[in-house]
Every structure is written in structure tokens, then in C-alpha cells.
Automatic annotation (TrEMBL):
<dbReference type="Pfam" id="PF13416">
    <property type="entry name" value="SBP_bac_8"/>
</dbReference>
<feature type="signal peptide">
    <location>
        <begin position="1"/>
        <end position="21"/>
    </location>
</feature>
<dbReference type="InterPro" id="IPR050490">
    <property type="entry name" value="Bact_solute-bd_prot1"/>
</dbReference>
<keyword id="KW-0732">Signal</keyword>
<protein>
    <submittedName>
        <fullName>Uncharacterized protein</fullName>
    </submittedName>
</protein>
<dbReference type="InterPro" id="IPR006059">
    <property type="entry name" value="SBP"/>
</dbReference>
<dbReference type="InterPro" id="IPR006311">
    <property type="entry name" value="TAT_signal"/>
</dbReference>
Length: 440
């Protein structure tokens, strides 16, 4: 499989909010931490989220071969693809069919955490990385660790990181650091570009999650991490009355009605929007760090991709960046937990994780390794951030059904100019109240 398909698959895996909402939670909670045969384990079963033909699988196969050579432990790997957790789910309360999987936070938090079917992997952070003086916990920044920790338990050991940022072709578009620093200065820059005949922003408006990036980022960078999440989960709807939510909606309305988006964004089909961006018909895209690889087959000659974190919108707290993680998960009732944990530790050896980063052109959770040059800006953004928030402010993790049924349809109308900001707030509040009455 070529890299374009690999990165499109990664984007689909991380952003398929409907899939999270559609998977029913396991009916009964499983207690206990499950079995483990201890250090005598000679094999374990690993179900990967990748297909065997994909670039990440190539790197993983190399690591598996080296792990088996060094430890004598056999890895029974199956390349299950993106539905790996859905395939594993029916076995989680009994004897899990796999001892190790990779998974994104939203799926683990919505499916495994509430049912107690994800093992607490806290002890892995204390393990020394083979051949090094540091522990696993010392090579993974705490801000990444927090994204995989739920209720004080480490249910995901972060391995890969996706950064969401404003992408542009630095060979054609040359904003200053000041232009990108605040929403007011960024909007002023966009206005100048529009007056000069440029199209400021591209967007594939048929993808609700892409449309949602804008409102979520504006709210969080105005009111702080957790603000959109708080409004989503407020059964009274009162949180939506706070001025910041309307102000963010007004900013989206200004983009939509001010002609800042590329022509046809509200009616075209993916990937028309990103094709226009990649061929210099629009200047910016707010997108995950998979974007440069995904557009590579049709990118304009000489493109030099750069990324900037979303502008501050009035928030006075920590320096923010938007990120999602995917990482290692062990079922609570795994019979070969020790061997699976040994493999996790092994994958953080510098040569192993660096090979993965370069082969897959992915940001990895160990920032001291050399990654693909195209990931340089996202890596700088993540390194500079004090606090990370995920692309939906954890709403998909906890309120996926609300997000799909209430927020996204209304947000689509807002960003396409079919609702005013005031109408949007009124409707999201009233529909949220009705939704929570039906679902509480």
C-alpha cells in the first residue's frame, strides 16, 4: 500500500467518530486485573491496527523479528486493520483473543475504560528501556502520558501522536510569527490576503469532523481545555449561555459569510478541498499531521509545507496544542501480560521507535528521536506546548453520540453559512437539553 493510502487510513482511524458512537458498550463490567503467566511467558498474541502491506507494518515486522531474536519470545501477530478493537471486544470479558493491540484514546475510553477491560500499564513506565539508562516513563513526555491515563490508571502507553495545526505552503504563503500568534492578527492577515486576490482557507465541508476542527479550536483557545467538553456534557444547556461560546460561533460565521473559504467548500466532495490546497488554490488548511503525505501524489511542484499551532483566541493559561495519541493497550484478562509489556518496553528503544517514525513518516511519542523532515513543524509545536487538548476536546471520548447527532449537524450549517451564530447557539442548547432528557 502506498503512503497516501496509509495516511488516509490513519486519518480515518483517528477521526471516525461515528464508529465510536456506533459500538455498543459491553453490558457487564469485568473485575480484576486478569491473569498473567509472569516472566516465563514464551509467546503472546498481538493484533495490529495496520494491514500487512502498510508502511507502519513494515517497521513493526522488523521490530518483531529483532524482539524475538533478543528475547526468545514469539510474537503471534495478526494484521487486523482499523476494526481491531471491535473484533476483539466480544472476547474481552472472557479469555481475550489478543494480548496486545494498538488503539486511539477515543475507542479505549468509550469501550474499554468503562468496562474495566483495559489493563493498568503503570508498571511499564517504571521499566528500563533495554540498553539505556532511562525508563519508558522518562522517554515519553508527561503531557502525552496524560492523554492515555483515565481515572489514575494507565490504559494506553502513547506510541504515535497526531498534531492538528494550520498547514500552509511556505514557498507561496509567508505569514510572520506575529500574523499567526492571535486570532485577531491571523484574521487581519487573511483579510489582506483576500484583498490581494488570494483564497485564505480550504476545507472539505462534506466531512463533519473537519468542519468541527474550527469551532472546537476557537472555543478551547478562548476558554481553555475542557470548555467544549463541559458544554457538551451539560444536561441543563446552561453552559452554552456563556459569552465565549457565542463569540466562537460568531468567528466561524465571519469566516463563512466573509468569503474566507475556498469556492465550493460547502458542496464539494473530499478530497476536492485538500486538492485545491495542495495545488495552491488556497493558502491554509486546519488539519492533522497526516496532510502532507496524503496530498503528496497531487501536490504542486516545489511545495515546502509548514505548520503553525492554532492562534490564541484570548486564553490566558498554558501554551496549548491540539493532539491525539494512539498507543499500546493490553486487555485486563490477558494470559500473557508480562510478555506483552516486555514488547511495549522494547518498542521504545531509540533505534526501534526511530525506524518506525521514519518508515511511517509519523510523529512518535519519544521526542528525542529523528523523525521525517515533514514532521519537523508539528514536532516543534508539540514540544513547545505546555498543555495538549485532543481534536474534539475529548468530546468524542465521552459524548460521541451527542457529537454525531446534535453538534455536528448544527456546526455543519454554521460553517456553511446556513445558520447565524445566535441561531447555532440557541439550537445546540435546545437540542442538547432534549438529547440529554432522552439519554439520561
Amino acid at each position: 500500500m502506498d503512503r497516501r493510502r496509509t495516511h488516509r487510513a490513519r486519518r480515518t482511524f483517528l477521526l471516525s467518530t461515528g464508529a465510536v458512537a456506533a459500538v455498543a458498550l459491553l453490558a457487564s463490567c469485568s473485575g480484576g486485573s486478569g491473569g498473567s503467566s509472569g516472566s516465563s511467558d514464551k509467546s503472546f498474541t498481538y493484533w495490529s491496527m495496520w494491514q500487512e502491506s502498510e508502511a507502519p507494518a513494515k517497521a513493526l515486522k522488523q521490530s518483531i523479528a529483532e524482539f524475538e531474536k533478543q528475547t526468545g519470545i514469539t510474537v503471534k501477530v495478526q494484521w487486523q486493520g482499523r476494526q481491531v478493537l471491535q473484533k476483539l471486544q466480544p472476547t474481552l470479558n472472557g479469555s481475550p483473543a489478543a494480548d496486545l493491540i494498538e488503539q486511539a484514546t477515543a475507542n479505549v475510553q468509550s469501550i474499554m475504560v468503562p468496562t474495566g477491560t483495559a489493563a493498568d500499564l503503570s508498571a511499564v513506565y517504571d521499566q528500563k528501556v533495554t540498553g539505556e539508562d532511562k525508563t519508558v516513563g522518562q522517554v515519553i513526555p508527561e503531557k502525552y502520558q496524560k492523554l492515555g491515563t483515565f481515572g489514575g490508571k494507565v490504559n494506553i502507553i502513547p506510541f504515535t501522536v497526531t498534531n492538528y495545526a494550520l498547514w500552509y505552503n511556505a514557498a507561496k504563503t509567508k505569514p510572520s510569527a506575529s500574523d499567526l500568534s492571535t486570532w485577531a492578527s491571523f484574521l487581519a492577515y487573511l483579510k489582506k490576503q483576500k484583498e490581494a486576490g488570494q483564497t485564505p482557507i480550504s476545507l472539505d465541508g462534506d466531512i463533519p469532523t473537519y468542519n468541527q476542527f474550527w469551532y472546537t479550536a476557537l472555543v478551547v483557545n478562548k476558554l481553555g481545555p475542557g470548555s467544549f467538553h463541559a458544554a457538551a456534557g451539560d444536561k441543563t444547556g446552561a453552559t452554552w449561555d456563556q459569552p465565549g461560546y457565542l463569540e466562537a460561533a460568531q468567528q466561524v460565521e465571519e469566516l463563512a459569510k466573509g468569503g474566507y473559504f475556498v469556492d465550493g467548500y460547502d458542496a464539494s466532495k473530499f478530497p476536492a478541498g485538500q486538492q485545491k490546497w495542495a495545488t495552491n488554490k488556497a493558502q491554509f488548511m486546519l488539519m492533522g499531521s497526516w496532510l502532507p503525505q496524503e496530498v503528496a501524489p497531487y501536490a504542486a511542484s516545489g511545495a515546502t509545507y509548514a505548520a503553525a499551532t492554532f492562534p490564541n483566541n484570548g486564553y490566558s493559561g498554558d501554551k496549548l496544542a491540539s493532539a491525539d495519541i494512539a498507543g499500546w493497550v493490553v486487555p485486563a484478562k490477558s494470559d500473557h501480560k508480562a510478555a506483552a509489556e516486555k514488547f511495549i518496553e522494547f518498542m521504545y528503544q531509540k533505534d526501534q521507535i526511530e525506524n518506525y517514525a521514519k518508515t511511517s513518516q509519523t510523529i512518535v511519542a519519544r521526542p528525542d528521536v529523528t523523525m521525517s523532515p515533514v514532521m519537523a513543524d508539528p514536532q516543534k509545536i508539540l514540544n513547545a506546548a505546555t498543555t495538549l487538548y485532543n481534536s474534539t476536546d475529548s468530546v468524542v471520548n465521552d459524548y460521541a453520540d451527542w457529537n454525531t447527532k446534535v453538534f455536528q449537524p448544527l456546526n455543519d450549517k454554521l460553517i456553511k453559512g446556513k445558520l447565524t451564530a445566535a441561531q447555532f447557539i440557541a439550537q445546540v442548547k435546545s437540542q442538547s437539553v432534549s438529547y440529554w432528557k432522552r439519554n439520561s
